[in-house]
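Subject: sequence -> structure tokens, single chain

Hey, anyone have a minute? Need the predicted structure for the following. Not urgent.
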Amino acid sequence: MRFARVGRHAEGEPVGEGQSAVPRRRRMAFGFPLSALCILALAGFLLFWKLGATSFHDGDEATYAQCAKEMMARGDYLNVHFRGEPFLEKPPVKIWLITLGYRLFGIGELGARFSSALFALSTVAITILLGRRLFGSSTGLLAGLILISSTQFVHEHCGRAAEMEPETVFLYVASMACLWLARRDDRWFYGLAASAGTLAMTKGPLFAPVLVIAALFLVTDRPRVHITRRTAFLSTLVFLVIALPWYVHQMFVHGTLFLRFYLGEQIVNRFFGIRQSVVPGAIVGITRQPAIRFYGSVVFHSLFPWSVLLLPTLAYQVREVLRKRSDAARLLLIWIIVFALTIGFSKGKLPWYAIPMLPALAISVACFCRRMVAFQPRWLYFALVAAALVLPLLFLPSHQYDPYSRRAMAWPSEDPDVVAAWTVRPWVPLSFVPGFLTLLLICVAVWVAVGYRRSPVQGRLRTALWIALLGSFAFSSIYRTVLPLRGVERRIPIARCQDAIRKAGLHPKRVILLGLGPEKSESRAIDYFYMDNLSGGNILAPERTGDLGADSVLQSGGSVVLADSQFGAALAKAGLGMPLLSEEGLTAFYFEGQPGISTIRGVLVQEKAKANRFRPM
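Reply:
Had a minute. Here:
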């Protein structure tokens, strides 16, 4: 059955000839909440299942987690510190949320990541509601399903990570929802101002694209929205009250250092590319890839297989804006274009910079899919087959990043092996094969079905094939999102060392590093977080700082020794204390009292003598 284009009960939602909009709304009254709850339940599973089982796999995660731990210890919630030094890179909202998670679940991975998963779940919910407001219930539900099936939204630097992106993307969607509702009730401008102000306290300069989007949408609106002076003044006041005080406080505390580092280093230098990446062409920092290639690849991988519909989706949105003056399509198009230009002109490119665009793309693709099922225009068959064949050839040979792999647990600029892990470019990743093959088979089947004589049976068959096509999209995308959860219990050696100490009920007073000097271990945020958990911040590197016997405090209490393979073999041969683990170049022991100190001192003397013996003349 084909729907006639005779009316709309919600903007962009087709209604059949002679069909009233009210009965359809009543039919969706009970189905929409139940379907939305099912999607949110799926999102809750993907985001919260074994959330704290994986050790930190990113330097930003461990940095924010350590900052929150030091904030709790100091009791100073206005000034952020990392390893005792002022941390001026980011505003404090994310650190506050991690601190709250620590108070609820204790200091660890779960407490640090809880707020991220909660805001990601809230983003899915508000995306469903916004999609329903813009295009109808079916579009909102499908948009939520597309968003939660995005691997980048769930895994990489977002929902299951203690990063700032979950709060950022939530505030973006909330801002766009307030902007849409403000067309009917100008009190929603206060919500828009509050969201933009909170965004300035979360991700700094990323509040600016929100204001640009709002300005362009209101200027191009017909009839133009009238904003009273009172509403404009109070909205500006709300924004300034939320965003300004902390920045003023930092200026008083740190003076020009705050401006030079935060504004100069973190914003201006990063945007204009003054600070170059250590590895040319790497994914982190400055990349030589064109923006459309880099972010096109990121979005294509993130939303696959839905991403094969992106080009016809954007063409459809432009057509809706130009021909039908669709306000909903205009909002999404402005959102996508403004943010794409913002990150495109920035010289610093990172994959997760594109995350705030994902809800807009999800709603757009969902609207396009609903139109395909409702109208089934013939040109879409050929466009879909062409997209399925061509787009993977353009974007599949690109970067792959497994957030739970051992090799992705340090910054590429610090380890050449990790650089190779981040920049490897396999042609067709295995997780794409089921969805890709299913897509091709169904496209061919639908294409063949076009040639048959039109009849009610054939019409129902074509509708069933379109629904099967969308179902295969949903299955393969969810499959790709669930696939990485197989490795959520992976933990790096130093995290397993921490787990072993807790399980044994030991309470060490210090961590002693042998062969793992500050440049190799202590400077890495991930290692430092776990070492700090082991010892309460008392970390020593005696081969660089002097003789252990000079510190009388070392004569009592437990100690954990973290050694490289060379020192670890010598300590094991000397029979030092209780062995905790030995793998991947890291050996850990636990001992108490003077005998362990004497053993370490002897090993240090022995290794120093070896080094002097083989030193070239």
